[in-house]
Write a structure and sequence with these properties.
The chain has about 120 residues and is mostly helical. It is about 60% helix and about 5% strand. It has five helices and two strands, in the order αααββαα. Strands 1-2 form a two-stranded antiparallel ribbon. The radius of gyration is 18 Å and the shape is elongated.
Length: about 120
């Protein structure tokens, strides 16, 4: 993973894991890698990996079961909320960028329709 220097690494990893959960790559109830394995997978410090899990747990995205490890939450609403929030953020960025280019709402919608067919 290539990291952006304008944002803390642990938040970028949190965002990537949320994306994997929202897209279905990581399933509800799935066991997450150990802190050490997460650090290796994302090429980050183990303390940073620990912080990633702290954030995910505080947001109820993951839960740690003592002696068993960390697991993705089984809460289907949580997954739906993550997915919807990520989609909203993407749409907000798109609209903001196109408004800066002076596109009208109709032009934006037309562009999306045309690009959807090509994608």
């Amino acid at each position: 993973m290539k990291y952006d220097t304008s944002m803390p690494i642990y938040l970028q990893v949190v965002h990537q894991i949320e994306k994997e959960i929202a897209s279905g790559k990581r399933k509800p109830g799935e066991k997450m890698p150990s802190t050490r394995d997460l650090a290796i997978a994302f090429q980050i410090n183990p303390n940073t990996a620990s912080r990633v899990y702290q954030v995910l747990e505080s947001e109820h995205i993951c839960m740690t079961r003592r002696g068993l490890g960390t697991f993705v939450s089984e809460d289907a609403d949580m997954v739906k909320n993550i997915r919807n929030q990520m989609a909203k953020e993407s749409v907000d960025r798109l609209i903001s960028s196109l408004k800066e280019l002076d596109y009208s709402e109709e032009e934006m919608i037309q562009m999306i329709r045309e690009n959807w067919k090509d994608a």
